[in-house]
Amino acid sequence: RMDLIVEKIKHWDEFDYVIINLNLEETIRKVRRIISCERMKRVRQLGLNSFVEGLIKEAGEE
């Protein structure tokens, strides 16, 4: 089990996020922020293309 952990640590720079769990409450806050940010990524925003196209169309009509 420790071998697996050591292998993961060796590849720390390949991860998008690195959280060092020194304080549980702070770690939970960080994880929640990461989840929130991931949800806001453009590729996860269903219907965003249509929304932006509508904004552009509205702006062009003024």
Q: What shape does the CA trace take?
A: elongated
Number of domains: 1
Structural class: mainly alpha
Largest sheet: none
The stretches of 5 or more residues where confidence is low (pLDDT under 50) are: none
CA-based gyration radius: 20 Å
The overall average pLDDT, rounded, is 93
**Beta-strand proportion:** under 5%
**End-to-end separation:** 64 Å
Percent of residues in helices comes to: 55-70%
Helical segment tally?
3
**Order of helix and strand elements from N to C terminus:** HHH
Strands, count:
0
Would you kindly provide a written description of the structure presented here, covering whatever features stand out?
This protein is mainly alpha-helical and 62 residues long. It has one domain (2-61). The chain is built from three helices and no strands. The chain has helices at 2-10, 24-39, 48-61. It is elongated and about 60 Å long.
